[in-house]
Amino acid sequence: MSVDPMAYEAQFFGFTPQTCVLRVYIAFQDYLFEVMLVVEGVMLKKLGSIPGCKISSSEIRKCTEKFLVFMKEHFDKLFAKMEEVLLQLVLNIPKNVLLPEDRVQEQYPYSKEEFQALQDELQQLQQQCRAEAAMGQALRAELEEQKAVKAELEKILQCFDGLENICREHGAGNFKESFALLTQSSKKLQDVLKDVEEKSKKMKQHDQLMKW
Known about the structure:
Layout: H1 7-13, H2 17-48, H3 57-90, H4 103-107, H5 112-169, H6 175-211
Helix pairs in contact: 2-3
């Protein structure tokens, strides 16, 4: 069997020529075995009809096997020549023949260096695309976060607007001024509460001293 891969022929036929030749060989071989079995059956039938025949079926089988070996040896020699003819003259594409799908290479030829440069450029473009895709995803995530923050700020503004409306309804005037007064009053209340806590602590200490 030929060791030439014959890749161009495989591209055209859809199978390797060696595979085709191998299948032809197997088909011929199977047919030879079937013929020998038929011949053996006919011989056994004929000998069985001859009175006083001393040739047994085992002897017939040995003779059939010897003849099969002889036939297979000659068949292999003949098939080797047929294989050479098939691979060189039938299943071979001449060197000067170009398949239709490869004619673009004839119109736009390029060297190995140019092909490698194109491969490198393609790889760089793929990396850039991946980087831009990742950046786009990060920007979309940031935009979603900004939308969430904007929604919270709008809720806070709505809350302040509601407080300002309440202040106006109760005659509190400007909400900002009211909020400043509220902050000052809260601070005064905290100072008073702190003063009360300190006085209460001192009174407890005084009561404990009096018990002693």
